[in-house]
Design a protein that fits this description.
Blueprint: H1 12-44, H2 49-64, H3 67-82, H4 88-114, H5 117-125, H6 130-160, H7 172-183, H8 187-218
Keywords: Amino-acid transport, Cell membrane, Membrane, Transmembrane, Transmembrane helix, Transport
Protein name: Arginine transport system permease protein ArtQ
Family: Belongs to the binding-protein-dependent transport system permease family. HisMQ subfamily.
Length: about 220
């Protein structure tokens, strides 16, 4: 085995810049996914059938097709259909946000339905409007229960973020490929970037466990 990490030392600052580049679109995508996923969750528990069907169909499509396919469709189809030259960054946010919202909607729906029905009945008996009941009573309790699952979704998005390298976005994976092309050595930069991904994921995992312990003790 002939490993020589000394050749990638000059590229380390370039690679490390990819950490923020990666996290930037992942954070924006998870916020977008959470907001839209919350709306979808409310549509799923709505008593209006067309809204149920729309939310279920949306979830089925985005959970039933590969994320990389969704990314490619957004990146290549939007310029072809609209003439708008969409950037890799915006494509990544849309693809990951729309995909994540499908999963988050199921997490939030389950969290809302896990709240004691007696509280809903009590709120209705007191004449509390549905919007205020969801905002001030049901949703905060559901959010507390689903935070660990939301953290897992954030971790999953961070790992899957590597696929944006396929559209030329200069994330960690793409930077490893650039360094490999410059040095004619692909293994070392990939191992180095793999270590960075592992540290990021382990860090997020520890944060998630800490949040879960705090929630458990606060019950």
């Amino acid at each position: 085995m002939n490993l020589d990490f000394s050749q990638i030392v000059p590229y380390i600052p370039f690679i490390l810049e990819g950490i923020w580049v990666t996290l930037k679109f992942v954070i924006v995508a998870i916020i977008f996914g959470f907001v839209f996923g919350s709306i979808l969750a409310l549509l799923k528990i709505s008593h209006i059938k067309p809204l149920n069907w729309f939310a279920d169909a949306y979830t089925s499509i985005f959970r039933g097709t590969p994320l990389i396919l969704q990314l490619m469709i957004i990146y290549f189809a939007i310029p072809q259909l609209t003439g708008y030259d969409i950037s890799p960054f915006l494509s990544a946010i849309l693809a990951f946000g729309l995909n994540s919202s499908a999963y988050i909607s199921e997490i939030i729906r389950a969290g809302i339905q896990a709240v004691d029905k007696g509280q809903v009945e009590a709120a209705q008996a007191l004449g509390i409007p549905y919007r205020l009941m969801m905002k001030d009573l049901i949703f905060p309790q559901a959010l507390k229960n689903i935070l660990p699952a939301l953290m897992n979704e954030f971790i999953t998005l961070t790992k899957e973020s590597a696929i944006v390298s396929t559209i030329g976005y200069l994330d960690l994976m793409r930077r490893a490929q650039v360094v490999g092309a410059d040095t004619y050595r692909n293994f070392e930069p990939l191992i180095f970037v793999g270590l960075i991904y592992w540290v990021m994921v382990m860090g997020l995992t520890l944060i998630g466990k800490r949040v879960e312990r705090k929630l458990k003790y606060s019950d």
